[in-house]
Amino acid sequence: MFFGKKDKDVRITDKQYKDLVGNMSKSERKEFDRKQKQLQREKDDDWLLGMLFLTDDSDDI
User: Fold this and answer.
1) Which of 36, 48, 31 lies closest to 9, judged by CA?
2) Across residues 16-36, what is the average pLDDT?
């Protein structure tokens, strides 16, 4: 679960997630899930780029 900060990955239980999205309309939940997936992709991309730079630096040694 992400809340707008790329460096903050918050884990919640299934019950907490259900409580969080339970009062949302179908469109609000769809938008919430879309945003969570987008933030996850950005985090994964940042990690991959970091690994590429780390690999490039170690090749120079």
Assistant:
1) 36
2) 91
